[in-house]
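Shipment paperwork, digital attachment
Item: protein structure file
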Amino acid sequence: MKHFCERFAILLRVLVLVTVMAACGVDQEITRPSTRVGGDGGEMVGSGILNGSDPTATQLFLLALKEKSAVVRESAAFALGRIGDSSAVPDLIKSLEDPNPQVRESAAFALGQIGDSSAIPSLIRKNNDSEWVVRKEAAFALGQIGDPVAINSLVSFLKDPSMQVRGNAAFALGQLGDPRAVSSLIQALKDEAAEVRGNAAFALGKVGSPLAISALLVVLKDENSEVSRLAAIALGRIGNQTTVPALVKLLDDSNWKVRRNVAIILGQIGDPSAVPDLVKALHDENWGEREILVVALGQIGDPMAVPTLIKVLADDEWSVRENAALALGEIGEPSAIPALIDMLARQNKQIYMNTTIALGQIGDPVAIDPLMQMLKHDDANVRELAADALGRIGAPAIPVLLEVSEHEEGGINQSVMMALGQIGDDTIVPILIQALTDQRKKIRMQAAIFLGEIGDPVAVPDLIKALDDQSTQVRINATVALGRIGESARQAIPYLTKVLDLADERSYINAVWALTQMGETATSALIIALKHNNEKVRQRAATALGKIGTPEAILALQKYGKKPFKKPF
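Attachment content:
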């Protein structure tokens, strides 16, 4: 019975801690990966999840560090790391000497999360801890803190008998990014454990030293595919053109994973001297490799690859064709346009999309007509990409964009607006102003809408003229556009006042809305609107005058006995 009560008490204290952790938003999962293998997830210096959280929670967990139960102490240490309060550092340093290894492990983890350099000496001393889990976490914590003073100690961690410790030490050296670690990391590339070799490769990429290139080239052929991949990433990060001659030789390697990784690296380096070898390698029977080779050619962006990429547009594998289209777009060579236009005849949505993107990247007006057809496509994604492509082409595409801005299925207006915005106000505004006099009503309507969205006051005189357009909808759109321009359109106030006298309700309702957007400058016109025969107009005018709040506005409201309109409009 006594043992049961003790166990129950421990369980109760743990539950209390968990409850506090949940209330504070602390992740309750206390398990941690044994080693960190390549990736950017370790860049969390001083990244306690709840940095600056309630000090009361910190104090509760600090008290819990002194509990008799090791489970409670472990959970408390972990929680303090997640909170990230530096005031906990002294107590966590003491916990590094806890008799329980799991508590020490959690304390090391917490110190790494908090990222306070005062913990470094104590963490360094953990390289002699009797338990590998503690050494592992201490190594990782030193990387998290990111102080170069820990370099020599982390190098010593690389000689630890535990694979997990060595792996975390290599990863941590990458986090520090100090060139002094390069020689030790190169040695770690020969480690018997794949996890260590992979993290060493990753770390060398983070350091970015050209001294590691020859060793990483060897590791490209590592029997472990993940290690090979991480070596490729590292070489890509270093990005040294001196590696290209050695890399292109590996495009004929018997291992397809090596060939794939080499193609990725060459694309990242971007040296045009690799293009002939990449083109030659496109005969590979593996479609996955052809796909990567095509991507690499696009990244390099040398026009020399264009004839080959045009041929690849007829590849048997659709994903290769897709990426060939994108590659041609990245290169931006106009000679590829006819072949890309032919691709639009294919009944494949993804090819439509990638080809449309490519035509936009090239940006030649020759592509306007086929892109116009894509704007009528049933799929909204295709239409949006076509609008974007036309926007990239620029001013020559504006009439087309205006023409299709009211797609029958809806949803195209926004895309067209984005495309027009991409062209740039300096170019588009004069063209839109000219479009206000176009013979086609729809063009005039859309031009007014877009001028309002852009909000350039230079359009105000022409929008005022549009208030006399023969089309009611054009007049309304011009009215709304003036309202969106706001106070900068105050010269339109007399003309908007005249609109209040029209018989068409939509016209005068929008006119009073436009006046309300012009603020105090429209006070006189809004006072006139207080006498309008339409109740909606009077109420909206009263609301606007109430917001203006000048003595003149208040006096008018009192005179006509109006109260501001409560509902938004």
